Amino acid sequence: MPKKIVLAYSGGLDTSVILKWLQQKYKCPIAAYTADVGQNDDFNEIKSKAKNLGVDEICIDDIREEFVKDYVFPMFRANALYEGVYLLGTAIARPLIAKKQIEYATKIGADAVAHGSTGKGNDQVRFEIGYFATNPKIQIIAPWRIWDFKSREDLIVFAQKHQISVPKDKIGEPPFSVDENVLHTSAEGKILEDPWNSPPDYIFSRTKSIEEASNLSDEITIHFENGDPKMINSEKHSPFEILCKLNDFGFKHGIGRVDIVENRFIGMKSRGIYETPGGTILFHAHRAIESITLDRNTAHKKDSIVSEYADLIYNGFWFSKKREQLQEIVDTNRNNVNGEVRLKLFKGNVIVMGRRSKNSLYDLSKVSFENNETKDQKFAEEFIKSQFSKIK
User: Which of 99, 110, 141, 239 qualifies as a FRET site for 216, CA 20 to 30 Å off?
Assistant: First the structure.
C-alpha cells in the first residue's frame, strides 16, 4: 500500500472524483499536482477545490516556457504530423507533465502517483511511460482501470453524493472530454463519438469559424534562428509568448481546426476535434524557411522519418532513445535554418508570401529561365540519360 500519493489534478470532474476515491481507498495523504502548460484554467479555483477536498499539499507548477521551448519547438523542427493531420498537441504535453509530477513526488516524499486517464485512451500510456522513464520504481495508480465506475454518469452520482461540484459546458450538460494547453485544445465524446455528426459551433473556443473570421487579411513575418521562431514582425518574444501571439492571429482568422478519426495506440479508432491555431501557422512557416536553407538530402531525410517520429510522440515515447536518435537527424544542419518567412493569414488559410535567409541555398543564376546556356541544356541531357540507366 502507498504511503503518500501525488495525483495529476486538473480540478475537473474526473480528477476531483479520483481524489476523493483515493482518500477513501488508500487512507493515506493525497497531494495534488497541477501543471500550467498554458491552459485557460483558474488555478486559484483549482487550488481551492483541492483544499475543500482535504488536500494539504498542492503544487501549481508553471512550466509554460519549458513546455514550448524544450518540447513543442523540437517537435516542430521535425515538422511532425500524426497520420498526416494531427499536430500532436495533447501528446507532446504528457511527457513533461509526467516528469514534473514525479519530481514533485520525490520532493515531498511520495511513493506513488496517480492520473485520471481512462482505460481506453492514449494518455494512460503516455503518463505511465513518462513516470517510469523518470522513476522506474514509482508506484502507479490508474483508477479508471481498477474502480467500479463504468461511466461519467457514475462519477456524477458519486460527485453529488460527496458534494463535489460538477462542471457544465455551454449548453448546461456534463462536459465533453476536453484537453487544453498553449498549443491546442481537443474535444472528444458525446455527440462527437458518431463520426457522421458535425461538431457543434459551441465546441470551438480557440478559432473563429470561417464565416466569422476577419474579412481583412493580416500579413506577418516570422524570424527564425537555428530552426526556432524568435521574432514576429521584428519584435522578439519568449517561446511561450511567440506561440500565444500566433494563437491570437489564428483565432482571428479561423486557422487550425482539424476533425480527425485517428488510430489510437491501444488499438481502436477515435474521433476528435482539435484546434491548433498558432501551431498551424508555425508549421507552415517552418516548412517555408527550411525550403531555402536545407539541402535536398537533409530535407528528404527529415521527411522520411516524420511518420516514425510522430508515432513515437503520439504513443508516449518522448524519452526513448529512438526519439532522441531521430531528433539528432531532425536537427542536422539546424544552425543553417535562419531567416524570415512572410505569411498572409486569411479565412482559415496560411499563405506563404515570401522567404529569405543569409543561409539560402536558392541560386537564381541556376534556376532563372532568363539564363539558358548551352552547357546547362547539355548537362540536363546527360543527367537524364544517367538516371535512365539506373532502371534497366
Answer: 239
Cell, residue 57: 499539499
How many distinct structural domains can be found in the chain? 2
14 is a catalytic site residue: yes
Q: Measure Cα distances from 175 to 44, 166, 179, 280 in Å.
A: 21, 9, 11, 26
Q: Tell me if the pTM is above 0.85.
A: yes
Residue 123 among the catalytic residues: yes
Extended strands (E) in 303-373: 339-346, 349-356
For residue 266, the enclosing domain spans: 185-356
Q: Which of 64, 123, 270, 334 is catalytic?
A: 123
205 catalytic? Reply is no
**Residue tagged active-site, from 177, 291, 307, 360:** 177
| Catalytic residue list contains 363 | no
Contact of 246 with 281, CB cutoff 8 Å: yes
pLDDT tens digits, the chain, 392 residues: what are they?
999 999 999 998 899 999 999 999 999 999 999 999 999 999 999 999 999 999 999 999 999 999 999 999 999 999 999 999 999 999 999 999 999 999 999 999 999 999 999 888 889 999 999 999 999 999 999 999 999 998 878 998 999 999 998 766 544 565 678 899 999 999 988 889 999 999 999 999 999 999 999 999 999 999 999 999 999 999 999 999 999 999 999 999 999 999 999 999 888 899 999 999 999 999 999 999 999 999 999 999 999 999 999 999 999 999 999 999 999 999 999 999 999 999 999 999 999 999 999 999 998 776 666 666 655 666 667 776 777 667 66
| Same domain, residue pair 276 and 316 | yes
Catalytic residue chosen out of the listed positions 64, 77, 94, 257: 94
What CATH number has the domain bearing residue 201? 3.90.1260.10
